[in-house]
Write a structure and sequence with these properties.
It is a single chain. A hairpin with a 2-residue loop joins β2 and β3 (153-157). With 162 residues, the chain is mainly alpha-helical. It is built from seven helices and three strands, in the order αααααβαββα. The mean pLDDT is 79. The protein is globular, with a radius of gyration of 17 Å. Strands 1-3-2 form a three-stranded mixed β-sheet. The chain has helices at 2-12, 26-43, 48-60, 65-76, 86-103, 127-134, 158-161; strands at 117-121, 147-150, 153-157. The protein has one domain (2-10, 24-161). α4 (65-76) crosses α5. The longest helix is centred in the N-terminal third of the chain and has 18 residues, at 26-43.
């Protein structure tokens, strides 16, 4: 896990103007953060609902990844106004995670009249901000919600996933 967090620390510092001013690795950062949330939902989801899911998985002989992800985010996700209810946030994050994993974020539901746009927003942060502020929960990394939804557009603020 230490390696994964070190990778994220570096990704959250991008873009670096001296190296490549227009490359922030936002797709990579989003995919990694959402995959970590998915993994955490398997290893650390210990609420009552997690126990029910674990029993169902043992009984049925297969994982319930979506249920775990949604339950984990709904139970533990810190909400920032004006984000929707926890389940709505969980569903949006799961939808975006699946789109990034399975089709590089390019999928649009054919049943939707208007295609949706997903923006992955991230500003460069210093290593001190990442380690001291984010990891020690001294400040919330956002002054806006993790997910901002407007019409057919979602903006995901990646620092909030950290």
């Amino acid at each position: 896990m230490k390696c994964g967090l070190s990778d994220l620390r570096l990704l959250l510092r991008l873009p670096v103007p001296e190296l490549e001013p227009n490359v922030g690795c936002n797709l990579t950062t989003a995919a990694m953060l959402l995959n970590l949330v998915s993994g955490f939902s398997v290893w650390f989801f210990e609420a009552d609902e997690g126990a029910v899911i674990r029993a169902d998985e043992a009984r049925d002989g297969h994982p319930y990844s979506k249920r775990r992800f949604l339950g984990f985010v709904t139970t533990y996700w810190p909400q920032v106004e004006p984000e929707g209810d926890p389940l709505t946030s969980a569903e949006r994050l799961y939808e975006i995670r699946n789109s990034l994993v399975h089709d590089l974020g390019a999928h649009d539901d054919p049943e939707r009249e208007q295609p949706k746009t997903v923006k992955l927003a991230k500003a460069p942060h210093t290593l001190d901000e990442i380690v001291t502020s984010f990891e020690r929960n001294m400040v919330h990394p956002l002054n806006v919600p993790v997910i901002e939804e407007m019409d057919n557009e979602y903006t995901i603020h990646l620092a909030g996933l950290y």
